[in-house]
Amino acid sequence: MAGGKGAGGFLKLAVVFLAILAIGIGVFKPLINAQRLGLDLKGGVHVLIQAQSTPDHAVTPDDMAALERVMRDRVDQLGIAEPVIQREGSDRLIIELAGVSNPEEAIKMIGKTAQLEFKTSDGQVVVSGKDLKDAKAIIDQQTREPQITLQFNAEGTKKFADVTKKLASSYPYGDPKRAIGIYLDQQLLTNPQVKEAIPNGQAIISGGFANFEEAANLAALLRGGALPVPVQIIERRTVGPTLGADSLAKSKTAIIVGLIAIALFMLLIYRLPGIVADFSLIVYGLIVMAVLWGLKATLTLPGIAGLLLSVGMAVDANIIIYERIKEELRNGKTLRAAIDAGFKRAFTTIFDSNATTVLAAIVLYFLGSGTVRGFAITLSLGIAASMFTAITLTRFLLHLVVGVPAFHNLWLFGVKEEQIPAAARGEI
């Protein structure tokens, strides 16, 4: 009967261990490859811009909020995934774009004011970028040249219709006064003649584009809107993909070496419970990577540092638990009772140590910025996952181990037989 229970317990333990191993092998690499990588790992552009006050207007918090919104719209038009756009101080904005194929063009787009104006020959502004509803780049089917089609909103449509009707009826075709100049940041793009009234709120910018990409980028700027205040790029840094790939390769190597060292340490020092801890770490890694992927978080080097630190803390939790278990065994408790008592006594210590670290991470998150926040998030996430695996999964696996009579030898738990009180030897 006992042999049957032992065989059943061993089979259950083997199935659980094999399932964890299979899931780890099958899922871990795809999860790693699916992670969004930050600027320092993927390469890209780091730009620091400063809003400029003018004699007539000082930069306000509302201006910075509008500036951040416009910049985010512009970056979205570039199709860049997970940009980092955040304020620094009262008048600066940090913009990090990972994986940019054309850094110079991206910086050029970021720095443009993009103030669009339609002016009559006497300099009167008829409509502006705030009246714009949409802008798209197209290829003219006849001339094969790139163009930008503009669509005004309701208010802009009415104003444009009124002025084109007035010009078409007041001046003969060819008269310079019949033209409407299209200006971008005070520079004339084109100065077309009004053939007839335009009631549909549509206009075309043609000529002067070197290629379709230039027209598409300008259309994206117009869709994003003009900057509320002038800006100056005070720092620009391009991280090449080679440097990013090198950082990523070194990070992967560090993770692999670190995990192998931890696994060997746990195996040599804690033997059978060490193996259990190693399997718990596999689940820990899967949980953290899955949550990061689910949150669409961007992984950076400081973020990886936070993960590695949380791995160390996960091992710390197991070490505290195992040392408590060994103490309980030396005090004469049975194996099952020692495991339960060890977890119960270790919980307070583990919770207190992790709580103080999470508190520090919260402070870093709210007082820090950029990659410091990434470090705080991954550290907190790793601690939460390590608490779960150490307190629940490790305990579950140890109870499965105890269900196998062949594993009742206390040497497997790092305790020598002579350290156990004589009255308690041989008990389970």
From TrEMBL:
Segments forming domain Protein translocase subunit SecDF P1: 68-122
Subcellular location: Cell membrane
Origin: domain of life: Bacteria
GO MF entries: protein-transporting ATPase activity
One example of a Gene Ontology biological process annotation: protein targeting
GO CC terms: plasma membrane
Residues in SecDF P1 head subdomain domain copies: 123-229
Keywords attached to this entry: Cell membrane, Membrane, Protein transport, Translocation, Transmembrane, Transmembrane helix, Transport
Xref: InterPro entries: Acrflvin-R, SecD, SecD/SecF_arch_bac, SecD_1st, SecD_SecF_C, SecD_SecF_C_bact, SecDF_P1_head
Domain Protein export membrane protein SecD/SecF C-terminal, chain residue ranges per copy: 231-394
Membrane topology: Multi-pass membrane protein
Function comment: Part of the Sec protein translocase complex. Interacts with the SecYEG preprotein conducting channel. SecDF uses the proton motive force (PMF) to complete protein translocation after the ATP-dependent function of SecA.
Family per record: Belongs to the SecD/SecF family. SecD subfamily.
Assembly information from the UniProt record: Forms a complex with SecF. Part of the essential Sec protein translocation apparatus which comprises SecA, SecYEG and auxiliary proteins SecDF. Other proteins may also be involved.
UniProt name for this protein: Protein translocase subunit SecD
Species of provenance: Neomoorella thermoacetica (Clostridium thermoaceticum)
Taxon lineage: Bacteria, Bacillati, Bacillota, Clostridia, Neomoorellales
